[in-house]
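Co-fold these.
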Amino acid sequence: MSHDTIIATEGLNLWYGDTRALADVSIQVPDRKVTALIGPSGCGKSTLIRCFNRMNDILPGCRIEGKVIFHGENIYDNGADPVSLRRRIGMVFQKPNPFPKSIYENVAYGPRIHGIRDRRILDSIVEESLRRAALWDEVRDRLSRSATSLSGGQQQRLCIARTLAVEPEVILMDEPCSALDPIATAKVEGLIDELKKQYCVIIVTHNMQQAARVSDYTGFMYLGRLIEFGGTTQIFESPRDELTENYITGRFG
Amino acid sequence: MTLSPRRFAKPGRLIPAGTGETVIRVLLLSCAGLAVITIFFILAFLLRDGYPIFLETGTTDFLFGTEWNPTGYPVAQFGIIPLIAGTLCVTLGAMAIAVPLGISCAICIARLAPPAVRAVVKPAIELLAGIPSVVYGFFGLIVLTDWIRATFGVPSGESWLAGSIILGIMALPTIISVSEDAISCVPREFAEGSLALGATHWQTIARVIVPGALPGISAAVILGMGRAIGETMAVLMVTGNAAIIPSPLWNVLSPVRTLTGTLGIEMGEVAAGTMHYHALFGVAVVLLAITLVVNLAATTIIGRLREQYAPGKMLGRAVPGILRVPRLSPGVREWAQKVLLVAILSLIGLPFAGIAGYCGCAFLFSLAALSWRRVTPRTTQKIAFFLISAATAAVLLILAVILSDILVKGLPALSIEFLTEPPRDLGRSGGIFPAIVGTLYLVAGAIGLALPLGIGAAIYLSEYRTEGRLTKIVRTGTELLNGTPSIVFGLFGFAFLVLFLKFGVSLIAGQITLGLMILPTVIRTTEEALKGVPVSLREGSLALGATQWQTVSRVVIPPAVPGIVTGAILSIGRAAGETAPILFTAVVFSQRFLPDSPFSPVMALPYHLYILATNIPGAGANRYGTAVVLLLLVILFYAVAIGIRTHYQKNTHW
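Predicted complex below.
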């Protein structure tokens, strides 16, 4: 692959209790590109993405084997700290989850917990993050209103702004548009296109058209395995694996 | 779009944030640990002081002896059968009153009442739960026993019947609110499915909604029963307290004595270390065991209910195994129904209306049963709704009668002097100032102890859980203590704080005892409030690189504050109204001055009322005055708590 790898897994296995959710997954995710993970429900794509920022740690009964390498360091090493990791690998969830605070406080939350107290710096971070999330013009007059008063699409862009405010290197998106209408979806997709100039974006989706529209690379997962990984054009036009071809042409899933 | 310079220092390696997190974690863990140790310490101490009686008298003689005469000469007798019989009689009677009324009222609130009515009735029922037991006892002693005496022409109205009525009223709020929750939780789709098939509203309620809510309703009944078994003061004041088995067994006008009543009466007069002393601890252990079984049954059922209605689960099994009625052939079932009907009729008919009324009832019911098949569903619905509304009206009427009696007779007794002066002439005149101050001291101390400890433990359990052994132990312990009768705490406080640590009857002993009593409530309500905050918010914060404590303190706790505050206020209300735990640990009847150190005894409102009502003849106006002050104080706490909850329920959207 011609691009630098920013995050990679080696022989990653994951169990929820007795159920094996990931089986020997090895993937190399390139920097400053959009990588999409597709596959039928329950194939492990959300589980995989949650391994990148160790969000699976907080689930009870979860056991992980194998390595996830971020900047040459295994993030599951004993000394590695999930907190400083998550600062550098942000995440946008399937269902918008703004905090029950004001719009301003939602975006300022991240910078605040990382020690920024100066009001002017906070103001500029909030404005810049909202601008980059293409939300500024819609909310500039009501920053002190509750975030829960926004529409679903606006809430999701607020969550993206909140993630951008801590300036991560990787942004994980777990089906970010599944709860949104087509217009809001189009806005978020446009945003993803902007984001890849500066960030590595990994997106989970079960909308294949979306994967084809927004991503540079695509991985197809099935029953906890990474079946095929490659350039999006190649995956969609000339898949090497029969399973991938069946899924993409809609023969199952 | 321009790229801004990175503002955050970028650590090259993923190193942990620092020692602050660890300190907080250890702090919370020690709260949880301390809570566990206390909980098991109480159990161990009760057993320590209780087991000699089992050795000395013999387990069989103690548990199955029919004679309770601890001061008998030459031989004292410690058989607790009469006490168990008393507890059983009073509890069963209470259930016979509370279950039909309570369930009807719950159905009415959940499914029939228009929103405006519901908005009034629900908080009213919750207020009913807030009235201190000593106030119920006072009402029972002054009004109810007198009514029974006059109505049935017996020398004294202090009886099984009086105890059952008072306990029934006290169990009502528990039964109503838990059943109402269960009924409201039955998914709307069930009801819609039934209505869409052309069933009437009542058919839907009777055949779909109530069966669906049956586990919750059973739990409600069991919890109400637990409350009735563990109640001390009210029972003590109205049952007459003769340690005899009613003869004949259904003589509801016979005086009885319960397990709790025995502890309340005798503990204050017993010399430590004697057989009598150990026998009382033995009684406490038995009481604890009974409430334990009752509460475990309730939690198990509620647990299953939660599992069943968990999102994404099929609702195939509508009723869990233990509650499934064995399938009977139609003939047998018809007979069973008839037997049940007769049993219910004898329960209701006999005491209230005598033979004539019983025959009348039986006649009416059999007439109804005969014509049942020919009645249209619409008429059935009318009858059912009428009965349900009547039951609800009855509950509200009871509340109104109790409140109005106390307010009408008590408010005129209030005056500035009454509130600011010490009592004179054994409380017949003068005021109750030291009692008000004493109660406030006791409550402040109890909250000061229970709040930090309980909230810390709850945060640890809910946020730092690794669902390990500790979590399980704390949870079991809290559940054990939560259902423990308050008199048992009083016993523990007496044996450990007053005698063992030599605090004497003192303010601090009372504060600690009350604090321990409300600790489980604080832990549970805090945990529930924290659990109510969606997991997605925690994930959102953690995904931004927040530490565990940053997430907890900035994202999880703020929305949970109303819930935590509500729990705390309810605990304050409970602590202010409780008498049994401070009976032998903290209070004296009359004191001219305020306590000058934590080791001096205090006066307290509930105890003052208890003594005025039972031991001081001719304290008429001041009795009602004290009752009103206590009632208003506790109701104020409850009203604030209910207000906070309603306000935030309206304004919370995730």
